[in-house]
Amino acid sequence: MCGRYASARRDDELAHRFHVSELVGDELGPSWNVAPTQDVRGVLERVEADHPVRQLRTLRWGLVPSWAKDSKIGSRMINARVETITEKPAFRRAAANRRLIVPMDGYYEWQAPESGKGRKTPYYLTDPDGAPLAAAGLYELWRDPSKGDDDPGRWLWTLTVITTNATDTLGHIHDRSPLLLRTTCGTPGSTPTSPTPATSTRSCAVCLSRTCNPSRSPRPWGTRATTRPPSSNPSPDTGAERARTAWPFHGGLDTNGEGYPWQ
């Protein structure tokens, strides 16, 4: 699963990287410990005046289905398994029509000891060249029944991060990982009918335990800061070559579960 990640890039950098034309909501401060139920920035497309508009907007991490009686269910919907998102009632509508990109500087995974006992070892996984990661996600809008029709906060925007099997050499850290896309997959013109050719993405893992990195600062993922996460003693993942296809934001998927861009 993906339960913690780092996000420190400014809106203008993300807007340039993902070809965003509209910024919605206030810019969020940098955080090395983005946690479920917190507000995060996501890249999505909305149709305005019959034209798609790419937005960078704030959503809450933890998807709340439109049919939910209250928003508490979102805390249990932080991840969606790619293998079942077209089947699960909470995700299947969003999988067909409401997809987004979740920008990350990197994410955290905890490796369990081989014995299954003892303390887990934390790792920070990021692009070795410092480029932002683009995680595939879904979003939903939930109408808060306690707020009036004229209340600007009556609609709650929420998202979930899609996960997949960690099939590369990083799989020894954790068996699941966010479904990462090429950062150029959001380029205008990448549509379901004209997918951009897949390229490979690389990752490197930095051990955050004092056992393998004694010089690290305590709990770097638990503080807010204006510097990058620790990058000393990186372990390049030379075998992590994951090919991904284009990620259309909506439409173009058949009802039989075939032809999905992440397959």
Short synopsis of the structure:
The chain is mainly beta. The protein has two helices and 17 strands. Strands 2, 4, 5, 6, 7, 10, 11, 12 and 13 form a nine-stranded mixed beta sheet that branches. It has a six-stranded antiparallel beta sheet with strand order 3-1-8-9-15-16, with no helix packed on it.
Describe this structure in words.
The protein has 2 helices and 17 strands. It has 263 residues and is mainly beta. It has one domain: SOS response associated peptidase-like (hypothetical protein yedk fold, Alpha-Beta Complex). Strands 2, 4, 5, 6, 7, 10, 11, 12 and 13 form a 9-stranded mixed sheet that branches.
> Whole-number average pLDDT?
75
The SSE order reads EHEEEEEHEEEEEEEEEEE
- How far is the first residue's CA from the last residue's CA? 19 Å
In total, the number of strands is 17
Q: How many domains make up the 3D coordinates?
A: 1
- Structural class by SSE content: mainly beta
What percentage of amino acids are in beta strands? 25-35%
> Uncertain spans, ≥5 residues at pLDDT below 50?
188-201, 213-247, 251-263
**DSSP summary: helix tally:** 2
Largest sheet: 9 strands, mixed
Using the alpha-carbon principal axes, give the shape. Answer: globular
Q: What is the radius of gyration? A: 18 Å
